[in-house]
Amino acid sequence: xxxxxxxxxxxxxxxxxDDIIVSGTNKLPFLDLSGVSFVEPYGMVLLLQLIxxxxxxxxxxxxxxxxxxxxxxxxxFDVAARYTNLPHDIKALKSQVxxxxxxxxxxxxxxxxxxxxxxxxxxxxNTQTRTILENELLYxxxxxxxxxxxxxxxxxxxPRHSKSYGYVCAQVYRIPHSEVKYAxxxxxxxxxxxxxxxEESDYITIMMPDDEKALNVAVVKERSSxxxxxxxxxxxxxxxxxxxxxxYVRSGRAEILIDPDGDFKITPRRSSFVGTxxxxxxxxxxx
Length: 287
Hints:
Elements: E1 2-8, H1 10-22, E2 27-39, H2 41-53, E3 55-60, H3 65-73, H4 76-80, H5 88-96, E4 106-112, H6 115-136, H7 141-162, E5 166-174, E6 181-189, H8 193-199, H9 211-220, H10 232-242, E7 246-258, E8 264-283
Parallel strand pairs: 1-2, 2-3
Antiparallel strand pairs: 4-5, 5-6, 6-8, 7-8
Helix pairs in contact: 1-2, 6-7, 7-10
């Protein structure tokens, strides 16, 4: 049995994924989320990918009414229903929990699936993200426009680089014991990962012995595997540093965390997971 308590966040879902892969089986008999009372975008998105990839015998969803209804409002169960049979009480939430079509603090889980669909999905994401940045984080017009361009590129990388599909999700929170808000954003795909993207490139010839090297080249050195590649990581790093945010990227068997001062640490993971996962947190503009 795998049991996640309190917060479904990056650290906990990554550890569950590592545990399953290291065990050498694609089966997880029982996943108990009943003790979860707080959910972050990265936790939701990676939980979807876990359900999609692995054979999970039984899932107990949060007992907390607020956590369960949040998952419903965020669109989690709509996507999860593609991969698993939902229990009756979870299906019933759809008629019990109203969706706010003008929610200014949430970007519901949005699939970025196929090249011909990507543009429409990106437009939806950009519109909602603009609302969050302007109304909740109080960013000025130039910063918002710059950020939208960067986000478009990161999302465009899913069909362009990963050769697969993925998801994006965002939520605005308040820092505990404070009036200051911050946004947590997750972009994740199920593609070939950063190292293989470089290995299959006809443009860049840097040797990639492992995922740590690939992360260093892509995120730290800001190199693209495409001749006409953009500057997505460069741009998001600049904004994160300007607003004292953080950036996390996992690809394959490695991860990197960049702090508000721009300092970074690349570390190995216990297992190699498909695709690339990005989480960044941006605090509200002050002054």
